[in-house]
Amino acid sequence: MASDTGFILRTLFILLISCLVKATWNTKDYLKREHTITKPYTGAGMNIPLWDFVGTTMVTSNYIRLTPDRQSSQGAIWNTMPCRVRNWELHVHFKVHGQGKNLFGDGFAIWYARDRNQLGPVFGSKDYFVGLAVIADTYSNHNGPHNHQHPYISSMVNNGSMHYDHDLDGTHTELAGCTSLFRNSDHDTYLAIRYEGTTLKVSMDVDGKDGWTECFKVDGVRLPVGYYFGASAATGELADNHDIISMKLYELDLPESQGKEEEYRGLPQAEVFAAPRDHIDDPKGGFTSGGSWSGWKIFFVIVLIIIGVIVCGAVAFVIFNKDDPTKRKRFY
Ligand SMILES: [Ca+2]
Fold first, then answer.
1. Which of 78, 125, 242, 243 has the most other CB atoms within 10 Å of its CB?
2. What is the pLDDT of residues 107-123, one digit of tens each?
3. Cα–ligand 1 centroid distance for 214 (angstroms)
4. For 51-110, how does the pLDDT look when each residue is reduced to its tens digit (9 = 90+)?
């Protein structure tokens, strides 16, 4: 009798748990171990199979520290296996913490990019990247229009031609973003990136409520397969510990009709950019396209000023010479 009650209670408990899990995400979504890094980080010595560590990255038994709470650090981890999954969701368990009360930085980025293991100025990774970056920026460099409350989560899709501008906190190149108070949190903090069809969705779980809050969702994002997942972080004048506890990649279980379109093979593309992008002078139809435009603009303005000065000088010279004889007449 007692064992029967125990059996019923156990069954009810299992049913309850499975319902709860189902409510969180589709259990058929398949964890791709080759693109996942989770505790225990086993491997021979400092090596973890299928993952590379660059820069200041340190592995402990409980976390992977991309940067310590020290100035001028850059660190990253990169998956060595290109991702062939077409529709996916990446869950990142992270922790950003440090001594700084008001001054801390700079932040970290999660990557799905063509090139890996290259340290650089975009939160510890290379600029003019090719791929997708989801950036968790903890320091506000920009106080002009369109600034955001920090920490700020945003995303950038780049075909290799765009520069990430720290002075503007990437405002002019972001697809979308949201404020998320994840730093020095007492709770576990998570970030989810979902890429389904051409829709990119980023969600956060930072307040210990055990559920995702949508940060943003954008359509018209095209990313090819075969790129690499990674995470990088950087400190500059300001510092923080940037820790990754786990990264788990799930292949989405979609109905037969979905996700079977022809594989995209071009460079990364995004159709929609955040509103502030419309407010800047767009290089479209300018002297030249790309990041060097402002340099060219300055050059042409200087040339125009020089021509203007020469013309004014010539006109003044002619007038002066014309006036001269009349003046002389008057004096004599
Ligand atoms: Ca910043």
1. 242
2. 999 999 999 999 999 99
3. 21
4. 999 999 999 999 999 999 999 999 999 999 999 999 999 999 999 999 999 999 999 999
Q: Do the Cβ atoms of 56 and 235 come closer than 8 Å?
A: no
In the reported structure, the alpha carbon of residue 7 is separated from the centroid of ligand 1 by a whole-number distance in angstroms of 55
Whether the Cβ atoms of residue 224 and residue 61 lie closer than 8 Å to each other: no
CATH fold for domain 17-274: Jelly Rolls (2.60.120)
CA of 332 to the centre of ligand 1 (A): 73
Q: Cα(156) to centroid of ligand 1, in Å? A: 14
Amino acid at 241: N
Residue 78: DSSP 8-state:
E
- CA atoms of 283 and 214, how far apart (whole Å): 32
Between 291 and 36, residue with greater pLDDT: 36
Q: Is the dihedral of CA 22, 26, 28, 31 positive or negative?
A: negative
Distance 237 CA to ligand 1 centre (A): 12
Partnered with residue 172 across adjacent β-strands are none
Return d(Cα 123, Cα 330) in angstroms, integer: 75
Ligand 1 centroid vs 289 CA: distance in angstroms? 26
Domain map of the chain by residue range?
17-274, 281-332
- Give residue 265 CA to ligand 1 midpoint distance, Å: 32
